[in-house]
Structures are given as structure tokens and as C-alpha cells.
Amino acid sequence: MPSLVEVNLTMNRLGGNVGLRPTLKTSLVSSLSSIQKLNLSHNRFTNLVHLFRILEPPSIPSPSGFIVQMDSSVSPLCQKRAMVEDCEEEERHEKIFVSSIMLLTTMAAWYHRKSIVKEMPADKAEKNVERQSVFETLFSETYCMEQLHISKQSFLKLCTILCEKGGLVETKNVPVKEAVAMFLHILAQNLKYRLIKVTYCRSVETISRQFNRVLRAVMKLSKDFLRSYEPKLQGQEAEKWKWFEGCLGALGRTFIPLNVPLEDRSRYRNKKGEISTNVLVVCSPEMKIMYVLPGWEGSASDSQVLQDALTRRDHLHVPSDKYFLADVIYANGPGFLAPYQGTRYDLKEWAGNVPTNYKELFNLRHSTAMNVIERTFKLLKRRWGILQTTSFFDLKTQIRIISACCILHNFILDEQPDDLLLQDIDHELEAELVPKNADEPGDEIACVQATSQWAEFRDKLAMEMFETFQGQQGYENEF
């Protein structure tokens, strides 16, 4: 039988007996010996396909060289099946159409509810009136200083910076100023959401969302504020640091309470038994924080934290020709100048005393300059009450809050050089340095040192105890 190049019965739904025969005029077909392609796509109800050759030439040849002949006798069952299939397909089209209409209707309703301004309900109108009165009170200088611990002018500038550099965007219902005010209020007073809810007439969900938005915006300012600063010292501060040429600042650590899961509390417990994080802070002579590393467990050693700060990706940069003043808890090595151990150091110990050798003189001047780190820690915790006690946030958020407080600390130092909180802290530190009995020197112990005289006193007291012990009747039963 001569071969057929292609038989295409696509969409032949009603089927029947279909015969395809080559014409005598097609020499190409007669030269082939096998069927190359038979396409019966969607030919669902074909009963029989006949491929045969007719010797006599057909009366009406097809353009392709074939004649397609379909028998007129179609099975009723095939017709019924075809009608059922057509109905099912129409039903599918209708379902798709109805689903599309419902989806579009839902999207339009959502857009109308979220984006189109409608008449405000009575209860929301009352809340807006209360919120407006709170906002008017908030923008008073007294309220900003007492509740937010920042001046009104600095607050407005902070909002502008967060929008321009932090990517903070105003939403439809909550202005940027209100979001920043809620954020600062929580940090300054360590308040929970339910208290902020009453003050600002907002839901807990709204306060939480706005707090995290502002926190992310503040963290984006870290490169602008947590950086190296060229010291510009004058007056008494310049006198403190003139002995340490090439010094960039001071390095120290502090413990900040954390709220951690029960299974992690043993790792975060420091030597005092408090659950806290060991925070490494590097500040300039002007009290600006240059680097901060929170997150380490309270039980971690200070040298381990410092080593991590020098090797991590966002590491502490220490030029080879510069150095930082370090506390006695750190080793005295390249880049970090520590005081002499076993020698009087703390400024409180120097009240009413003068150095008697070169080590004591060095420690006195070292401690005087290192006082900047203590002032920084006190100011940081005094301004942001959330750093003084544990908070209700998760561990990751608490770590980010510590960094955010350091960023805001530097911002406020730039905007408020005459800070009242700093003045109060300086007065407290000066009062601690005044000896209690300055007119009667030598009445109190200023330092602890081993002496032969004190050893003789201890031996004499011990022998008296032993003689009395031996003279007692039945002393073997005393214990």
C-alpha cells in the first residue's frame, strides 16, 4: 500500500468511517512506503479509519494529493457523547467566568475599604479628637524633655532624617511624628504596648507595627552615626587627653539586662548572677559611640568579646599607629593601652591622695581620661530606661534596641550639646569623688595591701582563739 505523508483528523468529533486515499496525480505519495505521521488529536469518537488506495482517479482531488471521505452513517451514541462533552465544556467556561467576576469584585471591595476615604464612625471620630489633644501636648518642649528625653527641635529633625535616610514612610492613618514619638516613648520610659495604647489611642497591633518600622529606619542610620570621630577637645577635656597622643578614645564594657528563654539563662548569667548581655562599647573623647557590639552572653569573658569585635565582618577598626584606652580587665597590647595592675586606679581611691611613683601617676591620668566611658554608660542608661531593666521584646529585637539607643545617643549629642541629663550625671560623679571625711585623713581604708603588721595581728587573734578553745571543758564536742 502506498504511504501517506500526513493524515490530520484534528477535532474530528463526530467520527464515523473516514477514508483517505491518495490520488494518481501525486507522485510523491506513491514513492513512499510507510506512514510517517498520523494525527488523530481530539478525534474522540472515531469508530474506524480506513486508509486505502483507489485505482481509478477520483473526480475531485484534494490540494494536498489526498481525498478525505467521511461516511454519512454516524452512530447516535457518538452524537450523544459529543453533546454531553460540549455541555461540560460550556459549564467549565461558565465557572471560570463566575470565579473571575467574584475575584474582581473582592479586589474592588478591598481597594475601596483601604484606599477610599469614607465617613468616619462616631467612635473613631472621638478617638481622633483625643489623639489630636495628646499630639498637641506632645509637641510641647516640656513633654518632649520629660517623656521622650529629647528636645522638640531635635525630635523634628530626627523625623526628617528618618524619612530621608532611614526610608520611613508616612502611612494613611499614622503620621511619621506620631510613630517616632511612640518609639521614643517606649525606649525612654520602658513602657509596654498596653500603656502606650492608652496614651496615644492606638491599638496594640498598630503600636507594634509602627515600633518595628521606626526601629528598622533607625538601624539604617548606623553607618552615619556609629563611626570614627575626629576629636575636637577644648578646655578641661583637652587637658585630660593631652598626655595620650594618638589615642582615638576609650574602650569598655557594660552589662544590660535581657529577657531570654529559660533554657538559655545559664549562658546569659554574669558574675553578679544577673541575666544580661556583655556589651562592648568604644567611644570618642567627646562621648560619641564609635562602635558597639551587643549580644554576647553575660558569662562570656571580656577578652573573648574583644577578639570577636576585631575579627567579625563589621569589625572594630584600629589603625596600627593609633590606640584606645582600655580598662584593667583587658590586656595591655598593641592598640589597647591598659593601666598598671596592683596599683591604685579608680578615681574614688584618689580622693585626698597624691601619686607617689610613676605607676600611680600614670594610673591617675589614665583613669581621669577613661572616665569618659563611665559618663557614656550612665548617660546612655539614664536617657533610655529600656536599658536599665528587662523588656518584653524577643531576644533579637532587644539586641537591635541596644544598637538603636547608641545611634540616638550620638544624634542627641550633636543636636543638644548642653544636655541637662549630662549635667546631672557630671554633678553626681563629682559628688562621688569628694571624700566623706576630708578633714580627717587616714580614718578610712583607701586601698587593700598585704602588710606584715596585719599578718601579725591575724596570727595573734588566731592564737588567742586557740588557747580559749583548749581551755574549754569537752571542747572536742564543740563541733
List the helices and strands and how they pair.
Layout: E1 7-8, E2 17-22, H1 27-30, E3 38-39, E4 48-51, E5 66-70, H2 76-115, H3 122-138, H4 141-148, H5 152-164, H6 176-189, H7 193-200, H8 204-219, H9 222-225, H10 236-241, E6 247-257, E7 276-283, E8 289-297, H11 302-311, E9 323-326, E10 336-337, H12 358-383, H13 395-415, H14 420-433, H15 452-471
Helix pairs in contact: 5-6, 6-8, 12-14
Strand content: 5-15%
The overall average pLDDT, rounded, is 78
Report on the biggest sheet.
Answer: 5 strands, mixed
- Main-sheet strand order equals 8-7-6-9-10
Measured as a percent range, the helix fraction is 40-55%
Which residues form runs of ≥5 with pLDDT under 50?
1-73, 436-448, 474-479
Helix- and strand-based class? alpha/beta
Number of domains: 3
Q: Total helix count?
A: 15
Overall strand count:
10
- Termini gap: 123 Å
Shape type: elongated
Order of helices and strands: EEHEEEHHHHHHHHHEEEHEEHHHH
Global Rg: 43 Å
Family: Belongs to the HARBI1 family.
Domain DDE Tnp4: 256-410
Pfam families: DDE_Tnp_4, DUF8040
Main location: nucleus
